[in-house]
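Postdoc handover notes: sequence design on the structure in folder B. Input tokens:
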């Protein structure tokens, strides 16, 4: 079954169950200044999940355009996409678990629908914790439908809980459906909890039956909702037995076109082909929602995507202007689903204008980059000194004169096994007093990808890690940037050298001791002077202001921040550093996760 059929069937199925089809909201969130883009199907529906009346009733279904920009550098592998479609259906205080699960089962296994044999499916439910009991009801419903015991796995909150979208609000346990992608049929003892590689999540039914209060309590909700989500590209790929989302018909025509323009074949340059296809698909969708490339916020993300696609075009030998050709293919594959793509002329012009702007300077910029490299080489021949880093000034020149987004310079450098002084770049950028405030404030620093429970927990853990780094490495080891998703925290800080294994272990120990203490987390608004006296972290970033908002974790951390955070540290589980690396002179990056989550 191709993606088009899957989309159609999903919508038709729920229409038959009394749902009204609603159009996809724009990828620019209309009422949420905390995120750049719409990241999930439920995101535009938050007011209605909170109790507001939806004009289309209490049963809704749609395909929602979503953009996730947390991992742009990981695009090119089998599953990461910047733009993706989320199929979803909702009950706003209407039906609940009984119907939601029975319908999921019917859609997945029914002959008229997906017709998946039960052997190839597995199900997970919430195992219960101090806030909410194990979801016995979900288990009983799956069983009543004929699902055998060994196919129902109980997992902790980290896996089987969704929301709230913000710090407070509707949330609840979920039950997830997985498809077997391994060889043959799954062994009885294999499940999504012990064999992540072979089970791919294809659908998630969230039972929004709790309201998380500001005090951290989980109160039963008056209006019980259902929020389900099926990532279209991934579900289509696994149902077709394809290894990658790029092997589906959503990408076929786009990759084929790239192949015609390129000197290389897809197999020879798989990463560049995928980057171009993904980035221009996302940029086309953004253009349809009338985002324009610029130096800040959504516009900057769009600029980065288009310019990176153009650079990868060069890598595979595309010399002529091509973004409009690819955008046409994107429009062709999706415009019957998202009518805003029908403003073809305007969309193509947005992309072409950006390409024209960049193509005037990219070749010169690349030559400038080559010049830098030969300069490094000469210096090495003359002095024996090896230069391995592009300075902030040089990176800024590439940005300012040739329009290279800093991320592109970092990527170019990496290909030559060089680093970039990103901090120096930011300083040069600030010194130059560029127009855009948010380029450094929002986009570089990244921040939280969403306000989900997982992201919130990693955010609190990040404060503890920050305090640990300062304590263990010294007062210089302060934050330079962060990017926190539901899966991991990525934290950039100042430090001149690689962390030793002992230092890493000490940082982990500090954070885990804090977690074990289960100290409460409180928010306070206090006078600036008091924050200074109490040595709150983060003052260095702040201009003088009378009052500041701090999060207090007792002896463990005091840091300026806007939130959200968990209520007490015991909610975090176990903290683990996954990776520690250099990202420029005096700048390190840690990727860390929480395991054994509560
Ligand atoms: N909000 C849930 C998710 O994104 C279900 O739609 O998975």
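Designed sequence:
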């Amino acid at each position: 079954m191709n993606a088009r059929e899957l989309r159609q069937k999903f919508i038709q199925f729920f229409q038959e169950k009394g749902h009204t089809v609603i159009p996809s909201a724009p990828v620019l969130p209309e009422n949420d200044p905390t995120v750049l883009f719409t990241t999930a199907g439920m995101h535009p529906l938050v007011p209605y999940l909170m109790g507001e009346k939806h004009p289309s009733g209490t049963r809704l279904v749609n395909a929602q355009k979503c953009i996730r920009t947390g991992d742009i550098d990981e695009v090119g592998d089998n599953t990461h996409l910047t733009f993706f479609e989320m199929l979803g259906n909702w009950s706003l205080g209407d039906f609940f678990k009984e119907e939601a699960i029975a319908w999921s089962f019917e859609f997945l296994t029914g002959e008229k629908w997906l017709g998946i044999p039960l052997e190839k499916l597995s199900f997970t439910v919430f195992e219960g914790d101090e806030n909410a009991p194990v979801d016995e009801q979900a288990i009983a419903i799956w069983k009543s439908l004929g699902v055998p015991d060994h196919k129902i796995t109980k997992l902790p909150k980290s896996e089987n809980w969704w929301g709230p979208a913000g710090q407070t609000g509707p949330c609840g346990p979920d039950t997830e459906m997985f498809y077997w992608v391994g060889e043959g049929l799954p062994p009885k003892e294999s499940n999504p909890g012990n064999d992540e590689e072979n089970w791919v999540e294809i659908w998630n039914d969230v039972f929004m039956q709790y309201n998380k209060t500001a005090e951290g309590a989980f109160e039963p909700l008056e209006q019980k909702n259902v929020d389900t989500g099926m990532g279209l590209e991934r579900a289509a790929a696994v149902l077709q037995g394809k290894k990658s989302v790029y092997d589906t018909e959503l990408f076929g025509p786009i990759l084929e076109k790239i192949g015609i323009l390129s000197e290389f074949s897809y197999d020879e340059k798989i990463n560049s082909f995928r980057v171009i296809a993904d980035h221009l698909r996302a940029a086309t969708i953004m253009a349809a929602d009338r985002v324009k490339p610029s130096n800040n916020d959504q516009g900057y993300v769009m600029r980065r995507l288009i310019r990176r696609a153009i650079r990868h075009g060069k890598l595979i030998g595309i010399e002529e202007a091509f973004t409009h050709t690819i955008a046409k293919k994107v429009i062709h594959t999706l415009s019957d689903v998202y009518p805003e793509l029908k403003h073809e002329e305007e969309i193509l012009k947005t992309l072409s204008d950006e390409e024209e702007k960049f193509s005037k300077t990219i070749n010169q910029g690349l030559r400038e980059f080559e010049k830098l490299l030969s300069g490094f080489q000469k210096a090495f021949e003359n002095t024996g000194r090896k230069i391995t880093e592009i300075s902030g000034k040089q990176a800024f020149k590439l940005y300012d004169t040739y329009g290279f987004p800093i991320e592109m310079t970092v990527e170019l450098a990496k290909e030559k096994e060089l680093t970039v002084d990103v901090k120096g770049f930011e300083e040069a950028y600030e010194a130059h007093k560029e127009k855009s405030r948010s380029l450094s404030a929002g986009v570089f620093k990244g921040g939280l990808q969403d306000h989900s429970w997982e992201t919130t927990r990693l955010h609190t853990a990040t404060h503890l890690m920050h305090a640990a780094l300062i304590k263990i490495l010294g007062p210089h080891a302060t934050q330079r940037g962060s990017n926190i998703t539901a899966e991991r925290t990525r934290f950039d800080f100042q430090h001149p050298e690689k962390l030793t294994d002992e230092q890493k272990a000490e940082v982990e120990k500090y954070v885990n001791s804090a977690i074990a203490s289960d100290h409460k987390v409180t928010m306070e608004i206090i006078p600036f002077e008091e924050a200074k006296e109490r040595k709150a972290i983060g003052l260095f970033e702040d201009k003088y202001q009378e009052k500041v908002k701090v999060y207090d974790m007792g002896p463990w951390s005091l840091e300026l921040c806007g939130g959200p955070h968990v209520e007490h540290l015991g909610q975090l589980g176990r903290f683990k550093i996954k990776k520690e690396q250099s990202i420029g002179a005096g700048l390190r990056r840690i990727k860390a996760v929480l395991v054994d989550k509560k």
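Context for whoever picks this up: The mean pLDDT is 90. Don't rerun without checking with the PI first.
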